[in-house]
TrEMBL record:
The keyword DNA damage does not apply. Pathway: Amino-acid biosynthesis; L-tyrosine biosynthesis; (4-hydroxyphenyl)pyruvate from prephenate (NAD(+) route): step 1/1. PROSITE patterns: PDH_ADH (PS51176). This is prephenate dehydrogenase. Residues 4-293 form the Prephenate/arogenate dehydrogenase domain. It catalyses: prephenate + NAD(+) = 3-(4-hydroxyphenyl)pyruvate + CO2 + NADH. NCBIfam families: PRK07502.1. It comes from Pseudooceanicola sediminis. Gene3D superfamilies: 6-phosphogluconate dehydrogenase C-terminal like domain, NAD(P)-binding Rossmann-like Domain. Its EC number is 1.3.1.12.
């Protein structure tokens, strides 16, 4: 056991996966949970999510050694303000937000003296959301990035690292700015491109009488899975990781124009060389154990 009491604020995919995984690893003596809507709290109680579901955030965090904010990035500041007066001295408050600079700016001003704020981001997810979508294996062999802020207590960071390792993750530390840039390349911009491609196909559907859906092949199908991700979460990601995503989108647009030109001018060599280079990146991801070589992009249905 690493913590006596852990409180999860927000009870969606990530929080429910943390609970099932913490239970699997016996990492916490007790886990409390809170979500803003009575419907989510009822569902959580019905499926046995958390040891206790509280009707207020204050009740959930009382006496907790670790509090994890599992709400959309845009809601982190308000939630931190709500729970701040109820945190016990010496407690660690962490989060799982997909953007780090904006979360730190929003949360840090509310952290009382004697409470340790250690932001984190597990690089694991699916396109599903809500309290019923979590599962214990979500973080297995996935990265979790810890983003300690200035003056973070080394012993508390080490404890949080051990907790995430107990959840199955490989843990690394990174600064917030670098985190946001890396994620803009590996996650945020690819999601935007998927949303765009599915939007284009949806427009075309109107002129091709559902053929896009009917004859949907692997490439498009894979985009639709990503583009089914939670609209609130992804709106907040782009509202808060503006600089890095705009930087990567700028580069993306330049490359796209270069490929467009190669197609127009019939430059097959350029296309072949480009696709050969990108194929090697896929090989690298498989070799690093972050995906498998199985068909259908190595995914068990519904997981990414
Ligand atoms: P989710 O399944 O949609 O659950 C979100 C939870 O936050 C729900 O319990 C919801 O409460 C609550 N919530 C929503 N808006 C709120 C608000 N304005 N104020 C207070 N609570 C609010 O989300 P998730 O996928 O677990 O994501 C949670 C966090 O993890 C996000 O910050 C996201 O960026 C990050 N993350 C997500 C993934 C992923 O792939 N999904 C991966 C890594 C990190 P109700 O149910 O009562 O509405």
């Amino acid at each position: 056991m690493i913590y006596n009491k852990v409180a999860l604020i927000g009870l969606g995919l990530i929080a429910s996966s943390i609970f099932w995984s913490a239970k699997r690893g016996a990492l916490a003596g007790q886990v409390t949970g809170y979500a803003r809507s009575a419907a989510t709290r009822d569902t959580a109680r019905r499926i046995g999510l958390c040891d206790t579901i509280c009707d207020t955030a204050a009740e959930a965090v009382a006496d907790a050694d670790l509090v994890i904010l599992c709400v959309p990035v845009g809601a982190m500041g308000a939630v931190a303000a709500e729970i701040a007066p109820h945190l016990k001295p010496g407690a660690v408050i962490s989060d799982v937000g997909s953007v780090k600079k904006a979360v730190i700016e929003a949360v840090q001003p509310h952290i009382p003296d004697g409470v340790h704020f250690i932001p984190a981001h597990p690089l694991a997810g699916t396109e599903h959301s809500g309290p019923k979508s979590g599962f214990a294996e979500l973080f297995d062999n996935r990265w979790c990035l810890l983003v300690p802020v200035e003056g973070s207590d080394a012993a508390k960071v080490a404890e949080l690292r051990a907790f995430w390792e107990g959840l199955g993750s490989n843990v690394e530390e990174m600064d917030a700015e670098h985190h946001d840039l890396v994620l803009a390349v590996t996650s945020h911009t690819p999601h935007l491109i998927a949303y765009t491609m599915v939007g284009v196909a949806d427009d075309l559907r109107r002129v091709t009488d559902s053929e896009v859906i009917k004859y949907s092949a692997a490439g498009f199908r894979d985009f639709t899975r990503i583009a089914a991700s939670d609209p609130t979460m992804w709106r907040d990601v782009f509202m808060t990781n503006k600089d890095a995503t705009l930087e990567i989108l700028g580069r993306f647009t330049e490359e796209l124009f270069a490929l467009q030109r190669a197609i127009r001018t019939g430059d097959g060599d350029l296309l072949f060389d480009y696709f050969t280079r990108t194929r090697a990146i896929r090989r690298g991801i498989i070799d690093a154990g972050q995906d498998t070589d199985a068909p259908d992009f190595g995914r068990v249905a519904g997981r990414k």
